[in-house]
Fold these 3 entries.
Entry 1:
Amino acid sequence: MSLTIDVVVPVYGNWPITESCLLHLRAQSVRHRVIVVDDAGPDDTLERLATGFPEVTVIALEQNLGFAGACNRGLAAATADIVVLVNNDVDAEPELLERLTAPFGADQRLGSATPLLFKPDGRVDAYGICADVTLSGFVRFNGATAETAVRDGGEGGAGHALLGPYGAVAAYRRFALEQVGDFDEGIKMYGEELDLALRLRAGGWSTIAVPDARGTHLGGATSGRGSASQRRKAGYGRGYLLRAYGVLRGRHALRALVTEAIVCAGDLVLSRDLASTRGRIAGWRAGAAAGPRSRDIPGVDRGIGFIESLQLRVGDRQG
C-alpha cells in the first residue's frame, strides 16, 4: 500500500513566491494534499488562494506565530503517513515528492528525509544539516556542486554526517513526530529543524539524503540575509539550544564557550552591533523553560573539529 502525503507550506506575504511554489507543487508526479498556513500575513494571499488554488487546504492564523508555530498548526491538520514541510520560496522539481517519500516505505524506522536543494545559480543550497559535538548545526554542501554533494553526501560518503533535513524542505514520518513532538515554539526562528533532528535521532529514528529529489531554494527571499534581525534570531536559537541541551554543563563546554565568544566578537567587528550577542542572551534565558533533552544523540559528527566548525560558520547563513 502506498504511503499518503501531506505538504505543509507556511507563508507570510510575498504572494509571487508563494504562487510559484504552489504551481510547482501542483505539477508533482504523486498524489498529495497541500496545506497552506497563512501566518497572519500582510497581503491578499488568502483571497488569491481561494480563487487560484481551490484544491489547497488553508489555515488562516489570526496572529503571527512565527515559523515553528505556523508549521505546527499545519502538522496538527495533517493526517497523512508522511508530512513534507516546504518553504514558500522553494520551487520543487516535478518528482521531488515522489522520490523524497519513497524510502519511507522500505524502512519503518526512517523518521526523516532530505532532498538536494539548489541555489538559483545552480550551486547546492543544502543537502540536509549536520552538527558538531557542541550541537552547533551547519548546512551540508552549501555552495558545492551537485556532483560533489551526490558523491560525498550519502551514507559512508566523505562529507559531514547527515543529522537530518534542512528546514526549507523536510519530509517526516508523522508517527515519528507524534513520538518526539513537533517543532519547539520557544525557538523564534533558526534552529527549529536542528532541534527536531536532534530529538528524532535521540528517539532512535534514522534519516536519509535522497539525491534525485531536487528543488530550487530562492533563499532568504522572505526574511533577508545578514540583517541585524536575522543575526539576532539566529543567535537566539543558538542560545536556546545551548541551554536546552545543557551543552555548557557537558564535556564540550569550554569549546562551546570559546566558539560563541569568537562568533560574537566577529559579529561585533564586522557588523558593528551586538545583535548576535543579544540574541544569544535572550535565547539562553528562554531555554531554561525548554523540556528535557537527551544528550546521547546518534548522528552528531564528532569529526568536525574546532577550526573547521569556525570555518563552517563563515559561510553559514544561520550565523
Entry 2:
Amino acid sequence: MEHFKEKYPGDEVYFIMGADLLVDIGEEKWKKSKELVQENKFIVMARNGIDMLAVIAKSPILRNADDGQTFHLIDKGLAMEISSTYIRDEFQKGGEPRYLLPESCYEYISTNHLYQ
C-alpha cells in the first residue's frame, strides 16, 4: 500500500479484498493488522456466510477505525467466491483466468510469467 500511495500521491488508494480477509485482519492474523487498518482504506467484497458488519463490530481494530470512510462494503446480493488465490492457482495449472482480471493486469501476469 505504501508503494502505491507514493506512486500515486494525488489519488485515493484502496486495498481491495474479500470479507474472509477482513475477518483475518480483524483477528490480527496479519502482521501489523492495526497499522494496516489505521493507515488505509478498504473495499471489501461479500463472501458467503460472512456478515461484514458483525465482523467489524466484533473486532476492536476494525471497530475503532470505522469512521464511515475506511470500509466500503460491497454486498448488494453478490458474494464473490473468486479470490486472488483462485486466480493464482488457475495460472499455475495453465488455465486462462483472463475473464477474472482487467486486461492490463492479465497481460502483465502473462508477460512476466508470474504464478507459473
Entry 3:
Amino acid sequence: MSTGKRLVDGYDLVIFDLDGVVYLIDRPIPGAVEAVAELHRGGTPLAYATNNASRRSGEVADLLTALGVPATADEVLTSAGAAAAVLAQRLSPGDRVLVVGAEALRAEVREAGLTPVSAAGEAPVAVVQGYGPEVGWADLAEACVAVRGGALWVATNTDRTLPSPRGPLPGNGSLVAALRTALGREPDVVVGKPEPELFATAARLVGARRPLVVGDRLDTDIEGAVRAGMDSLLVLTGVSGAADLLAAPESRRPTFVAADLSGLFEVDEAVRVPPVAVDGWQLDGDGLSGSGAVLDALRLLCAATWAGAKVRPTSSAARDAFHTLGL
C-alpha cells in the first residue's frame, strides 16, 4: 500500500551495493554523491555491502570519502572480511590458508588470526578465493592442488562479472567456475551475495527492523535481498538491464526499480514493480500503447511479462520506449 511518502521514508536503513550503484571502478555514478548527501541530511542510517574482495573496509571508506561520499570503515561490509570471519570460526588460530585474490583478502585472513600462504606445498587447511586483477593460472593451480588434498574451499562470492567503463568484465565467479570445472565440484562455502549474511549483518549492526537494499545486479543484490527477507530497489546504472528484469524469476524480482539513486526520493508507488497503475500507458492484450515515462512503461511491462504475456509495442511512443530500454 502506498504511504504517499518518499520511498526512503519507509525504511530505517539503506544498504548500498557499491560497484554499479555508488561508483564505477573509481568514479562516482552521476547523482550518487547528491543522493547520499540527501540521506545524510535526513539522518537515514547507511551501510555499504560489497562482494568486491579486493579492498578492505577502511580502503573502501577512504575511496568513498575521496569521491565525495563520506563513509567510515564500520559502515562498510566486504566479502573479504566476511570470508575471513567464516574461516576464523571454522579453523584454529594460526592455521594456514591459501589465499587466491588481492592483498586485501590476505590482510583480512592475517587479521583474523590465521596464516596466509601462497602454495599448496605449504600445507594449507583451507583455500579462500576472491577477486584480484593479478590472479592467474598459477594461483588457480595451487588452489586446485590444495583442495584436492582436502583443504576447505571458501569463495568470497560468485559474481560472474564486474562492471567497468568498457562493460561487464570477468568477476570472481568466472575464476571460481574455472576451479569448479577442474575439481568437478562446488566450493564448500560461498560468503557473499546472494547469500544473505552481508545484509543481515548490516541490519544487526544498527538494529534496523526495516532495511532497504539498493543494488544493480539481480543475481546478487536483489536475490540476496529476497533471501534475507528485505525489500529492494534495482537501479539501472550497472549490470542488470531492462531485459534482465523482465526475464527475472520470482527469486530475483525487486520491490522497486529506478533509473538511478534519485528513485529513493520518489513516492514509493512511482517506483514499485509491478505497479498498481501508471499514467499514460495502456496494455491491450499483447500490445503496449499510449505514452509516458519510460520507467513507467518498464514497470507495466514487468506486470504483463511476469504474468506470462509477451508484449509488443503498438504506438510510436511505445516503440521508442522499447528502443530506449534496449528491448
